[in-house]
């Protein structure tokens, strides 16, 4: 009897469960394949609901389908931390008290680590923070190429080399998305300057486009499987990039088979018809009715809102493109907010602080260390003078959309005090970024800041100057470019004055860009410390004290002067553009490709960076001498740590093709590896190079070509420091 009751109950449960299941529409069933869920949702949506999904409803969100229980898409900047909550219709912070994030180092620092594993750690950590804050899309990473040191946003990108940025962007994207948060790779494409960014019309050869400016985006899409991408503000060949047929339809969606959503940059959309047909899926940030920054913006006036709806109703547009856009937006939602088994993330956890510090430590670059004045171990000196505005200024605030409200930020001064003891450290500002140096009263204040810094330095055993740029307007900041390559706020004068009273001087530069260094010959030690986020001071102090051995290398070349930069050297049409037209006249010769080919010595070359130890490179060899076009070349050599400290070396392989039918740069980076060795240790290093990666882009045939013949593979410690060569033949 008892068993009978139990089995009847079980049958009832089964029927009931099936009835409940039968009521769940396919789009809500997380066990159904995403494409089925999309089909199901799409078939139930009205025309109005579909159109509504294609444009913003607030500064950082777009509508879902409330009637069907399909959630909104919430986005956040990116790319260095999770942006604070802003008001629905305004850019200013909404003063929430639960949104102070961990700031991770700027992407230039990440690129300088030359370490894809560290990039994965970055993506995982920032993805967890985005997830915890309930964001579906992280507006980053940025992979525009470093074309000129004046670009106000270089700090948000991964340097000048397409291979390096490609290798670094993939793990970032993958790890972010493992949190059920979409990466939104930006700004696609050619947004290589801030000046006139909303309008400048870029002309670039196909070859430079494919070889230099697109590879990192392509890698993010094809290998990283990015779920979204952001259009750029500028125009390419007469069409704005947010609705650019060539970039979005042909290259991204057709050639690369991108299946994610194209999101416009905020205010980057200018035309309904082009937005309908040229590949845009979601329009964000358009200013309507003059209500650009404050007040209620009538979102219904967006190009893809009412004008689109009316266009469909009047028969001007069919629903075909609309269904394609909504399909991609639903896919984005099913991959993120409506995904099964989505983790929950975490926010400002100790692991994130640890990750931020680790990334910072791996990206700091030691540029000069005469007579080994660094490191300064704890206890070595009684009195250390710390001078400079950047020792105390917040470097996470400002710079535009990447500005962060942080849970905490350890300044360099705090880092040094914690490391050496407050009694050892004497601080003097030396200069101030808050003064207007053109005004007479500012001059008096500047003089007294300088005089007091000189006194502090005179009485110290060692001096550490912490300067560089900051996130102010016309510095490393969105919206405009730097006006010169010089250090601002008369820092050159301060550095020179410090040198006259104390030669034991270390200069630490926090910048996202190259700067002129007229004092370089006199200054014995120089450290490039980027913008390092929450853990800045701890990471810098660990490096200076020698508790962490520096291992970063430069992801872009530092020219001696601006005129040596390729884009700049061709005059206004090349940079910043003339009458809104711009030609990338240096073509494929960007960064070290230019310096090498034109035989111009940079101040510091791409791939350069010192360590507290030394390395020696053995003779390289390859597994074969001849390869087919689809082979993988295995190159090996011995690397030894010949010093007394453990350390990591970033070994690089550059390829050249001496007899090519087209101009090829003197050398191009094709492989790299960060190798950690204990003191005295030797290891065999193996690097793999795909012969396909030796191709150039033939703009006549519109295809990649590996030209048969001899290639020289060069092992190197930087683009200007070749250690060994092997010649291989490609058949
Ligand atoms: C920037 C984007 C950013 C967006 C939203 C724009 O001004 O160019 O990078 O994601 O604003 O803040």
Describe this structure in words.
With 731 residues, this protein is of the alpha/beta class. It has 19 helices and 27 strands. Helix 16 (491-501) links the parallel strand 13 (462-468) and strand 14. It starts with a helix and ends with a strand. The structure holds beta-D-glucopyranose. The site of beta-D-glucopyranose has 7 residues, from loops.
Summarize the structure.
The chain has 731 residues and is an alpha/beta fold. The chain contains 19 helices and 27 strands.
Low-confidence stretches: 12-20
Cα-based radius of gyration, to the nearest Å: 27 Å
- Terminal CA distance: 82 Å
Number of helices: 19
Bound ions, cofactors and other small molecules, one mention each? beta-D-glucopyranose
Shape: globular
Major sheet summary line: 6 strands, mixed
Helix-strand category = alpha/beta
- What percent of residues adopt helix (DSSP H or I)? 25-40%
Across the major sheet, the strand order is 1-2-3-4-6-9
The fraction of residues assigned to DSSP E strands is 15-25%
Whole-number mean pLDDT: 95
Number of extended strands? 27
Task: Please describe the topology of this protein.
Layout: H1 2-23, H2 34-44, H3 47-52, E1 61-62, E2 73-77, H4 107-112, H5 116-132, E3 137-139, H6 162-177, E4 182-188, E5 201-203, H7 206-213, H8 215-222, E6 228-231, E7 235-236, E8 239-240, H9 245-255, E9 261-263, H10 272-277, H11 306-313, H12 319-335, H13 350-363, E10 365-369, E11 384-387, H14 412-420, E12 425-428, H15 440-458, E13 462-468, H16 491-501, E14 505-510, E15 525-528, H17 536-544, H18 566-569, E16 581-583, H19 592-597, E17 615-617, E18 621-622, E19 626-627, E20 632-641, E21 647-656, E22 668-677, E23 682-690, E24 696-698, E25 703-705, E26 709-718, E27 721-730
Parallel strand pairs: 2-3, 3-4, 4-6, 5-7, 5-16, 6-9, 11-12, 11-13, 13-14, 14-15, 19-27
Antiparallel strand pairs: 1-2, 7-8, 10-15, 17-20, 18-20, 20-23, 21-22, 21-26, 24-25, 26-27
Helix pairs in contact: 2-12, 5-6, 5-13, 6-8, 13-17, 14-17, 15-16
The structure holds beta-D-glucopyranose.
Beta-D-glucopyranose (BGC) is lined by residues 77-78, 139, 186, 265-266, 401.
